[in-house]
Amino acid sequence: MQCLSSVMLRVSFLLVFILFGCTEKSASPEKVVHYQPEVINPNYTGALVEPHSQAILVWGSDGAIQRSTDARTWEFVGTPTTAQLNEIVSGGDALVAVGEQGTVLRSVDQGKAWNKISADTTANLKALIYSSEHKRWFAVGTGSTVLRSDDGQHWQKIELGKGLAMLDIEAIFVSPKSQRLFIGGSRGLFGFSDDGGVNWQVMQLDLDTPLSGFYAFNDVVVATSAYGKLLVSRDEGSNWQLIETDGQAFFNDGVFDSAANVFLLASHNGKILRTADNAETWQLIDAPFHGAANYLGNVVIDKQKNVLRAFGHYGTHLISRDAGLTWESQTQHMQTPFEEVLVLEDEKSYVAFGRGGLLATSNDRGDHWQNHRMQLDIYWRNALVSSQGTWLVAGELGYMLRSTDQGKNWQLLNIAYTDPMTPPTYRALIEEPQSNTLIAAGPTGTIVRSTDDGVSWTEVHYTPFNEAEAFTDLLMDSTHHQLIAVEADGRHYLSKDQGKTWVASPLTTQRKFWHGSVLMRAQESVVLITGQAGVAARSLDGGQTWQAIDTNTIADLFGSYADQHHQQLFLLGAGGTLLRSRDDGQSWQAIALPTQSDLRRMTMDPNNKALLAFGGDGTILRSSNAGDSWQAMDSGTTQELRDAVVEPDTNNLLLTGRDGKVIRSTNGGISWETLPTHTTSHFRSLTTDPKTGAVLAVGERIVRID
Q1: 652-689, pLDDT tens digit by residue?
Q2: pLDDT tens column, 187-246
C-alpha cells in the first residue's frame, strides 16, 4: 500500500504539472518574422555627392540616409543609429558621419552600408571636416569637444584647456590658403591650429554670441555669428573685425561668386548680406518671395545662366541677375520648406530636401520640381489597412495619406472641408465591414466618409469651430448595424446607413468621454464609453439611448475593453485603475494590481487567451485567468505603451508607444523583445497588413516595418 500511495502521489503531481502547464503554455509560433524598418518622414538637413560613385546622399534625423545614383530612384539606407546625423563628409576612400549622442559612422562602399565607430564621447557632434593636407578627420561638438582621427575609425579627444567644458563648438574649418584649422563656438569661442590639430590656441573673442561658420574668399576669412553679427579677418584669424548688421538675422549659408567678386550670406529672415569689395563694406538686401520674408536656406551659382539662385521655405526660389543686388521671385507650384538645395555635377539638376521627409529633384535649375517624398511634418494619430490592402494614415490639420504599394509611396489626399481654416485633427479611422466604407472623425466636429477605398472623401458631418464639438472615437455595433461617433462632451452621434447620415444621440455630462468599446453577442450588444474622472455610460440599443454608469471611482479612465471570449467588460485608467464588469456594465469591481502606473488599453493574446493591460512607464500586466489576478511582465521599456495589434501569420502580439518602441511577444505576453524602428520619436498607433505581413507605426514619425 505504501508503494501504491507513492505511485499515486507521483501521478497526482504529474497531473498537476500537466494541467498547470496546459494553462500557462502559449502556442509559440514556429515562424519568427524579422523586420527592416524605413522612416518615411525624417527631417533631412544635409546632402552631398559622393565623389567616387557620384551617388547622392541625403541625411538627417533618426539616423536616416537616402541614397540615389540617378536622382530619380531613392533607397533608404539603414544605419546602426537613431540619432540625428549632423554631417557626412568624404575623405580618402571613406565616408564619415557624425551626429548626436557621440555618433560616428563610417562607410567604405560609397554610403551603401555603415558601421558604428566608438569615439568615447556622448557629445552632440555638430560639425565634421576632412583635411586633405593633413589626411586627417576632425569632429567638434558640445562640451568643447574636438576629436581627431587619421582613418575615421580610431578617434582621439583633444583637450583644449581648463574652463571650456561648458562651451560648445559649432564649426570647424580649414583655410584653403594656409591650411590653418579654425574652430568656433559659443560665447565667441575661437581657436586655431597650425600643426594639423595637435596643438591649439584657444581664446574667447569679445563677442556674446556663438561663432557658427567660417568662409574664405580671396584673402578674407569670414566667421558668422547670431543676431546679424559676423567677424572679418585679413590675416588668417590672428585679428578680427566685428561687423554688426541686421540684429535679427541668423546666417544659414555663404557663397562666393568669383566671376563677380561678390560674397553673399543667406539668412533665416529673408535677407541677404552682400559685399563686393572684399568685406570692406556690406549691404543688407531684402529678398522677399512674393512679398514674404521667408527663411533662405542657401544661395547657388548658376554659371550656365549667369544668375544667382536662392532657395528656402514655402517653395522660395529667387533669382538675381546683377550679382545679388536685386532679387526676383520665381513662380513655384511647390509650397514646401526647402532647407537647402544641392547642385549636381551637370549644374542644372538640383536636389531639394527638408523637414518631414521632403525630397524633390529638378532637372531645369529649380524651375520645375518632382516630389519624390512630400513633406509629412505633422503628428499622425491613426493608421489602417483596408480590406482591399490600401494603407491609410490620418493626422492633424485634416491631413490624410493613402498608399497602394504597402507604404513605399504616399499620396496626400485633397479633402474639401467646409471650413479649411479649421481642419479636423483625426482621432479615429475605421472601416465599416458590410460596405467596406471608410470613416474618419475628430475635432472639430468633423466626420468624413469614403466609399472608394480612400481615393475620395466626403464631409458628411460638420459643426463650426466655435461650438467645440470634439469626436474622440468611432465605434461599430455589428448587432444593430450602427455606427457611433463618441463626442467628448456627450454630444454623441449615430448612423444607421454606413455613415451617410448622422443623428444626435446625446448624453448630458460635465465630464469628458475619450474611448469606447462594444461587447457583441448574436442578438444583443453593449456599447461602453468612458473618460474623465470615472465617467462611463452604456447603450443596449447600439447608441440610440444612453445610461450613465456609477464606476465608484474618480480616476480618469483612459480606455475600455470588451472581452468577447469571456463576455466581460473592463475599464482602465490613472494610477493603476482597473475595473471589471460581468453584468454588461451595470456594476463594477475594482481589481487590485501590482502597479500604480496609468493603464491605457487592453488586448488578448489570440493563442492562449491571456489578457494584457498596458500603459504608462512600460507597464504590461498579464492575466491567465480571465482577469481574476494579474502579474507584471518585463516589457523592456519605461516608455508609455499606447496601442496593440496581432502580427499576421504568427498571431504574436505587437505593442507600440513612446520613444519609437514596438515590442513583440512570441509566448503570449510573458516576455518581450524590441523590434527595430530606426527612430526614438513617439508612436501613437500601429497596424498590420494581413496580406504582406508588413507593420506600420505612426505618430511623430511614419515608419514602415517590413
Answers
A1: 999 999 999 999 999 999 999 999 999 999 999 999 99
A2: 999 999 999 999 999 999 999 999 999 999 999 999 999 999 999 999 999 999 999 998
Query: Cis before residue 444, ω within 30 degrees of 0?
Result: yes
Cell matching residue 107: 562607410
Q: Residue 377 burial (CB < 10 Å; 0-12/13-18/19+)?
A: middle
Domains in the chain, please, with CATH? 602-706 (2.120.10.30)
What is the Cα 406 distance to its own chain's centre? 19
Q: Which residues pair with 705 in a beta bridge?
A: 37, 695
Cell of 167: 562651451
Reading across the β-sheet that carries 229-233, which strands appear in turn?
213-217, 220-224, 229-233, 241-244
Give pTM, 2 decimals. 0.93
Q: Can you tell me the distance from the alpha carbon of 281 to that of 274, in angstroms, rounded to the nearest whole number?
A: 9
pLDDT in tens, 411-438: 999 999 999 999 999 999 999 999 999 9
Q: How far is CA 91 from CA 46, 60, 479, 619, 700, in A?
A: 17, 20, 67, 47, 34
Across the beta sheet with 271-275, the strand order is: 251-257, 262-267, 271-275, 283-286
What does the block give as the cell for 421? 481654416
3-state secondary structure 140-170: EECCCEEEEECCCCCCEECCCCCCCCCCCEE
